[in-house]
């Protein structure tokens, strides 16, 4: 795709901004709860539910927001919706920075942040789906490096800043970074390659697979009666539920397993180190999954992803008090694979089933339904934690992952909508 210089310029900028989108999406969706919860509990004495309720309520609103944003992207284009969303997200971060003990301001600001990360994620996914077919998996594998990158840099940086000079400076810096990203989107991004006089992947002609593609609109009725859609909803709905539950409560899990020797707690004293090491090792897996997707298809890549999820969940289920170095190393690697791999594969598998042109039309309904259980993931973990049964929550997550694996297995005969333009469909096209 880099043979076309004009396409190369657009695609490189898209990938760079995509990494930024996923970095802040991962951090501001749920990961920053790992910093807010211990900091606010220690500073103001707030309990788990008081701190996380804005996220839970925001996640409920997100159920409908996926549908609204997806429909707006289809009707008006990504850029026109993404720009004001980034501004609102930055304002929410400013609000958290200035809130202090003002719970009302904190609640409203965190609520805004939770809902306004949705356009950031969906916009990045749709841009990648619009611009790439043959290289879609690998490009998304690069873009979604932003998620595990936050695990390496973001969590430790925010923790250090919050513990040294407070939350205000950390969230002010985040807000300023988001404004800069918005400016780059305004100047450097086009919704589709066709808008720039180009074709997907830098090709010199329109995609073969779209010449006779079914133009029937994707509606709620068609989604609800399509077994392919339900398999996507169940399998990737579980993966999204698990990732939200895992990322929001990993710090809390380590704190509950701390000993008096772990100062200030096990997460800060040991786990953060292994998170950085493991995440660095796991970052390439985001690209590897994308490569598998491009070469073997989204179903096989999805099965690999689910197996990698167990690397993140199992160690926390069996982690002893005081921690275990081997288990923390495995957990950290699993977290990187999970946070980088799921965002890579979700748009890939949806595009695989519905094709480039119908990706967002289908995705808006699929993600809306998936968001219903995902909205309760943090409350699920919080309830088990307050009952003193957080270990059981991780075993339940493992059972859910088994269900997801079986569901994806049943999708193995679903054809790729854009197979003629994918590498493993090339031979079939030229025959």
UniProtKB/TrEMBL annotation:
<feature type="transmembrane region" description="Helical">
    <location>
        <begin position="139"/>
        <end position="163"/>
    </location>
</feature>
<feature type="transmembrane region" description="Helical">
    <location>
        <begin position="81"/>
        <end position="99"/>
    </location>
</feature>
<protein>
    <submittedName>
        <fullName>MFS transporter</fullName>
    </submittedName>
</protein>
<dbReference type="Pfam" id="PF07690">
    <property type="entry name" value="MFS_1"/>
</dbReference>
<feature type="transmembrane region" description="Helical">
    <location>
        <begin position="105"/>
        <end position="127"/>
    </location>
</feature>
<dbReference type="InterPro" id="IPR050189">
    <property type="entry name" value="MFS_Efflux_Transporters"/>
</dbReference>
<dbReference type="GO" id="GO:0022857">
    <property type="term" value="F:transmembrane transporter activity"/>
</dbReference>
<keyword id="KW-0472">Membrane</keyword>
<feature type="transmembrane region" description="Helical">
    <location>
        <begin position="169"/>
        <end position="189"/>
    </location>
</feature>
<feature type="transmembrane region" description="Helical">
    <location>
        <begin position="393"/>
        <end position="411"/>
    </location>
</feature>
<feature type="transmembrane region" description="Helical">
    <location>
        <begin position="328"/>
        <end position="353"/>
    </location>
</feature>
<dbReference type="GO" id="GO:0005886">
    <property type="term" value="C:plasma membrane"/>
</dbReference>
<feature type="transmembrane region" description="Helical">
    <location>
        <begin position="229"/>
        <end position="251"/>
    </location>
</feature>
<keyword id="KW-1003">Cell membrane</keyword>
<keyword id="KW-0812">Transmembrane</keyword>
<feature type="domain" description="Major facilitator superfamily (MFS) profile">
    <location>
        <begin position="15"/>
        <end position="416"/>
    </location>
</feature>
<dbReference type="InterPro" id="IPR020846">
    <property type="entry name" value="MFS_dom"/>
</dbReference>
<dbReference type="InterPro" id="IPR036259">
    <property type="entry name" value="MFS_trans_sf"/>
</dbReference>
<dbReference type="InterPro" id="IPR011701">
    <property type="entry name" value="MFS"/>
</dbReference>
<feature type="transmembrane region" description="Helical">
    <location>
        <begin position="55"/>
        <end position="74"/>
    </location>
</feature>
<keyword id="KW-0813">Transport</keyword>
<keyword id="KW-1133">Transmembrane helix</keyword>
<feature type="transmembrane region" description="Helical">
    <location>
        <begin position="271"/>
        <end position="291"/>
    </location>
</feature>
<feature type="transmembrane region" description="Helical">
    <location>
        <begin position="7"/>
        <end position="28"/>
    </location>
</feature>
<feature type="transmembrane region" description="Helical">
    <location>
        <begin position="365"/>
        <end position="387"/>
    </location>
</feature>
<feature type="transmembrane region" description="Helical">
    <location>
        <begin position="303"/>
        <end position="322"/>
    </location>
</feature>
